[in-house]
Design a protein that fits this description.
heterodimer, B: MetI-like fold, about 70% helix
Chain lengths: ~280, ~270
């Protein structure tokens, strides 16, 4: 009796979480898969098995263009979060001597992540707009005669917004893998005569690759399905696959939106799998 | 102590710029929300006062924020209780090996990294197919769980990793049942961390937007109401609301941190 209980206990304890994820994650995604084969007659969807939705997705010029634009956002956001995030994580891990200070400064980077994304995006409006602070400064200093339009409601603004929102997802895993590097390896390399840059290139960077991989997976998956930043910071101009799906949901074209979502899920998984093939992240988990 | 190199100063300057990048925009809306009644959405600052902060609580032409705020509080409360229970329970399960633990672990990771539009669409389709109306407390709650539960679960896993099992073993040797051991030994020991995790869960839920945006139904939560405002509000009331809600989140995070520090010192 007691033995059966010990054996059963973990299953009982894990059940609530398994049910919650099953009901609100797995089941809805299976339904997306099912509905992507249904028919849409202009105002409602009916169960059927048709490939029309997928044919619609793959034969439309809009799809390809939208995907290219989405990949542009993914690529640029990834590049800038890495270029900004890596030095930040490196500074915290290797240049701050006391753990207390490392944790404190890391918290400073993390806190904005816990506040509202919407507010963080709105915060850019008074800076970047036509009459925004940046344009006022540029005009005031005589650098430009006309206010620059590209700061807001443009691809630039979308990428800026995403970097601002998501950079912590790049910093945290890199910081984590940098902190795990055995400091004696660095000392050993220095004793062998490696230059500062040599140590970084031969020791630190390769050991932080799993952190970069995890951060990259976060950035890719977050940006692939983005539609809020694209809408708020991009105005009407910018397009992304997430926004396309959102528009289709808005006009109740669930089957078409579902087909698009299945393609999006497949593409995202392919990117994640290729990152995992490049870098072994298992020892980080 | 070793003499600081040039790279230290360069990186320190870079870090400083980064912190300005993170907080600068937020500070601008704080400043702009403290304008006088003649204030506008852009610089220069016109007058000084708390006029716009007061305006947030007045009936607005574009909507009322008190009700969405209360809705967000209630939803955050429900989410926090559910997530705290489920994540502690699941993390306890993970202290033993069991079949399917790997699946559940990767499922939690997947829940975190799945593109948010899929959650929104999936829940939308599910409620459509089931002919249930979407509501903030049903479909919205589900969307919040897919985001908050895995985060809390991962933090709880880390907490139980550092948890010393000898106290429990002692209690069991003295004849305490599993339930009694949990309430009298485990829970008091993890309480400070649990309070911290709960407050963070609440904050995440309170600010959640993307996953809820298409499935909240007829009545909006606060972030959705704010998003609606961005298109049609032309006064600093928008910034004032942003300032107030950000300060609210900040104070929750601070309380979480202080409680965590104080209680963990006692333990």
């Amino acid at each position: 009796m007691a033995k059966a209980w010990t054996h059963l206990k973990p299953y009982l304890l894990a059940t609530p979480q398994a049910i919650a994820l099953g009901l609100f994650l797995i089941f809805p995604i299976i339904l997306i898969g099912v509905v992507s084969f249904w028919e849409f007659n202009g105002y409602s969807m009916t169960p059927a098995f048709t490939l029309d939705n997928y044919i619609g997705v793959f034969t439309s010029d809009v799809t390809l263009k939208t995907y290219l634009n989405t990949f542009k956002f993914v690529g640029l956001t990834w590049l800038f979060t890495l270029l900004i995030g890596y030095p930040v994580a490196y500074f915290l891990a290797f240049h701050i001597p006391k753990l207390r200070w490392q944790v404190l400064l890391f918290l400073v980077c993390t806190i904005p992540f816990w506040t509202s994304n919407i507010i963080r995006m709105i915060s850019w409006l008074p800076l970047l707009g036509r009459e925004g602070l940046v344009n006022q400064l540029l005009m005031g200093s005589g650098l430009v005669q006309q206010p620059l339009e590209f700061f807001l409601y443009s691809d630039f603004a979308v990428v800026l917004g995403m970097v601002h929102l998501y950079i912590i997802f790049m910093i945290a895993p890199i910081f984590n893998s940098l902190m795990r590097i055995d400091r004696t390896l660095v000392t050993a390399a220095e004793d062998m005569g490696a230059s500062g840059f040599g140590v970084f290139k031969e020791v630190i960077f390769p050991l932080s690759a799993p952190g970069i991989a995890i951060g990259s997976i976060f950035i890719v998956t977050l940006v692939m399905g983005e539609f809020v930043t694209v809408r708020l910071m991009g105005g009407g101009q910018a397009a992304s696959i997430g926004k396309l799906i959102q528009t289709q949901i808005g006009s109740l074209q669930y089957p078409l939106a579902a087909a698009n979502a299945m393609v999006l899920l497949t593409v995202t998984l392919l990117v994640v799998i290729s990152i995992l093939r490049l870098v072994d992240i298992r020892k980080e988990l | 102590m070793k003499k600081r190199s040039l790279s230290f100063y360069l990186l320190a300057a870079f870090f400083g710029l980064f912190v300005i990048f993170l907080y600068g925009p937020m500070i601008t809306i704080f400043i702009l929300s403290l304008q006088g009644p003649e204030g506008t959405l852009t610089f220069p600052v016109r007058g000084f006062g708390v006029y716009w902060l007061g305006q947030v609580f007045q009936e607005q032409r574009v909507g009322n924020f008190v009700e969405p705020f209360l809705r967000s509080l209630v939803l955050g409360g429900i989410v926090t209780v559910l997530v705290a229970t489920m994540s502690v329970s699941a993390a306890m399960a993970f202290r033993q090996r069991f079949k399917g633990s790997t699946v559940l672990f990767y499922l939690s990771i997947a829940s975190l990294i799945v593109p948010s539009i899929l959650i929104s669409l999936g829940l939308g389709v599910m409620f459509q197919v089931m002919k249930w109306p979407t509501r903030w407390y049903s479909s919205g709650l589900g969307a919040h769980l897919t985001w908050t539960l895995p985060i809390a679960f991962l933090i709880m896993l880390g907490i139980f990793n550092r948890f010393n099992p000898s106290y429990e073993e002692a209690a069991r040797d003295l004849g305490a049942s599993d339930t009694k051991t949990f309430w009298e030994i485990v829970l008091p020991l993890i309480a400070p961390s649990l309070v911290g995790v709960s407050l963070l869960t609440f904050t995440l839920s309170y600010d959640e937007f993307t996953r809820t945006s298409l499935v909240s139904g007829q009545y909006n939560t606060l972030p959705l109401e704010i998003f609606g405002m961005t298109t049609n509000v032309t006064s600093p009331a928008l910034y004032a609301l942003g300032t107030l809600t950000t300060l609210f989140s900040f104070s929750l995070i601070t309380v979480a941190y202080i409680l965590y520090r104080r209680l963990s010192k006692q333990g």
